[in-house]
Amino acid sequence: KMYATIDLEKARVGRTRMIKNDPANPRWYESFHVYCAHMASHVIFTVKDNNPIGATLIGRAYVPVRDLLDGEEVDDWFRICDEDRNPLDNGAKIHVKLQFFDVSRERNWDRGIRSAKYPGVPYTFFPQRTGCKVSLYQDAHVPDNFIPKIPLSGGKKYEPHRCWEDVFDAISNAKHLIYITGWSVYTEIALVRDQKRPKSGGETTLGELLKRKANEGVKVLMLVWDDRTSVGSLKKDGLMATHDEETENFFRETEVHCVLCPRNPDNGSSIVQDLQISTMFTHHQKIVVVDSAMPGGGSHNRRIVSFVGGIDLCDGRYDTQFHSLFRTLDTAHHDDFHQPNFPGAAITKGGPREPWHDIHSRLEGPIAWDVLFNFEQRWRKQGGKDILVPLRELDDLIAPSPVTFREDPETWNVQLFRSIDGGAAFGFPDTPEDAARAGLVSGKDNIIDRSIQDAYIHAIRRAKNFIYIENQYFLGSCFSWDHSDDIKLEDIGALHLIPKELSLKIVSKIEARERFTVYIVVPMWPEGIPESGSVQAILDWQRRTMSMMYKDIIGALRAKGLQEDPRNYLTFFCLANREVKRSGEYEPAEQPEPDSDYERAQHARRFMI
Fold first, then answer.
1. Is the four-CA dihedral 236, 238, 239, 240 of positive or negative sign?
2. 41 in Cβ contact with 65 (< 8 Å)
3. What is the pTM of this model?
């Protein structure tokens, strides 16, 4: 079983399938579209023989990068060498074709999106869809008194959408199907909590609502991440407190079909800084797909509506733009107190609760069907029983079609991106050739959809004036981190290009003497006990990432003889909230442990968002 890998120095950027029983003259005939943001002197092709106890190195071929920079195609045979770079005695060679495209010569480099004819991100599984409608949400809820009067064209005022209220309505009104995926789905939460905006049945918990809809004959299917740390002696809710087993048990022997889905990196694990990495690979798709009535009424037809974004249907996620720490502990958050950053935190000991800020969206039109197809792919791979709704048999369901006219100012062009592999999605092509045509990346024994990274890269490369990012984590491009004795960079595996693409973008602007800033908002630490091994490892990797980026920027400034502060080009922020105590506020019956971080945060009345 022979396979080949492609590396830009130590960064793995491609891996072929395995060819069996042809050791003398294997032919792969595979193509790779590789985004480059690497410092490298050679493109390295490594040939290996796979065996039950690992892989045996056959040899490596080295293609000098300088031979590629003029953009001409290189089509040649290259000698395969041993570990000392001496050609193998048997004269083995490998035939490759390579061509480099300089990003600055791409006609949309640095120019944004200039027209409605923009075709979308290329080489991806899902194409860009037209005639769609998108509703954007900020946080799970927006109170009536928050949004200022923002004038829009046509004499209209901006009307905010309310995520969890809309999800509640969508689930409540579904007739045929409710499909849900989540990192966490908690049955005990209520989606409607604003006392000024009551809804009929709004006090019903999510679990009871889904059971009721299933009993009405709606097909309710759920794919929830299987937190492998929630077994054994670790703890009931796992390291990340996802309630996965609790949710599965709640729906057992009901009409709701809930399946827990594990995700393992290459079906294995490794140890880095005493941390088992496999516990950190999760399914993060947060999706709700339903059939919905046609807008405006007057029709018995149904259409598909999908919700996609960053807000899980679980505890701790309901929040508003006020991000209260203490003032909602006797109302909206009394039965949903979430503070996983302090050991022993509980509503009986008082706040601060952990505020949660994120965005979400509702999709209508052809793009909603792409989200539906993604769910069907996953269910056919991981769901077990083939109980998906046969959509072709539904007489009242409108087929995928535009929901807006081209000249409508509210029309959207939308493209769906994801990070998933053939181990979690059914129907990926079997051959590398077909995978490449479908915008997928083939590996040694897997097919991968990496389009989220590709979309980020395209957005970064098109940016003209600034980039703004919010994320719970910010780490990557470990191939450019400073070398260190305490970790092996190749074991980290955070090879995605986003941080390096950002720093190279800034460098290109400095070289052009153009103003440009990247603003990055991250929490002070990712959710969890800050001194725990997993959080400490992530913070260390984030520090290495930031250091790498600032070194790139400082080097570019010095090369131009500029004395500017690098933070004028790259700045990191952490949002926090502080609340003054008010009379009548919730008074806990107990107190945090003396001299604990929990007690200090309670006295300071302050916490990160």
1. negative
2. yes
3. 0.92
